[in-house]
């Protein structure tokens, strides 16, 4: 079985403003898991953003893509990055990062 290279990733587990670990999307998810509606290893975020770190189109063949995921602190309302990772984009779209749940272990 071919093993995929592991993406570089950073997790931020607590609010940078008040140090709370309670996040809105995650709290909603935990209630769904409690009800048995979602698998226990599910993770949640409010939105994601992708930025290709490259020059003008046509000047590169592959480039790093920084993908960041955001949630909001339940205790103080600060929106912050909960996870960031770097993948590689290849011009022509063959290896453009897939959307979907980035936290899956596959
Ligand atoms: Zn906070």
Describe this structure in words.
The protein is mainly β. It has one domain (8-90). The protein has one helix at 24-34, and strands at 8-11, 47-52, 62-72, 79-90. A four-stranded antiparallel beta sheet has the order 1-4-3-2, covered by helices on one side. The longest helix is centred in the first third of the chain and has 11 residues, at 24-34. It is elongated and about 50 Å long. The model has no long low-confidence stretch (mean pLDDT 85). The protein binds zinc ion.
* Helix fraction bin: 10-25%
Radius of gyration using CA atoms only: 16 Å
The main β sheet shows up as: 4 strands, antiparallel
Tally the structural domains: 1
Kindly, what is the distance between the CA atoms of the first and last residues, rounded to a whole number of angstroms? 13 Å
What is the general shape? elongated
Instruction: Please trace the helix and strand order, writing H or E for each element.
Output: EHEEE
Q: Can you count the helices?
A: 1
Q: What ligands does this structure carry?
A: zinc ion
Strand content of the residues, in percent? 25-35%
Provide key terms for this protein.
single chain; mainly beta; 4 strands; binds zinc ion
Itemize the secondary structure elements and their pairings.
Blueprint: E1 8-11, H1 24-34, E2 47-52, E3 62-72, E4 79-90
Antiparallel strand pairs: 1-4, 2-3, 3-4
This protein binds zinc ion.
Structure summarized in a few sentences:
The chain has 106 residues and is mostly beta strands. The protein has one helix and four strands, in the order βαβββ.
């Amino acid at each position: 079985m071919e093993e995929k290279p592991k993406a570089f990733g950073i997790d931020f587990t607590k609010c940078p403003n008040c140090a709370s670990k309670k996040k809105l999307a995650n709290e909603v998810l935990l209630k769904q898991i409690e009800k048995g509606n979602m698998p226990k290893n599910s993770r949640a975020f409010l939105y994601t953003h992708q930025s290709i770190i490259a020059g003008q189109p046509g000047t590169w063949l592959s480039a790093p893509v920084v993908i960041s995921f955001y949630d909001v602190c339940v205790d103080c309302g600060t929106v912050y990055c909960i996870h960031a990772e770097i993948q590689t984009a290849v011009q022509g779209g063959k290896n453009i990062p897939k959307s979907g749940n980035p936290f899956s272990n596959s």
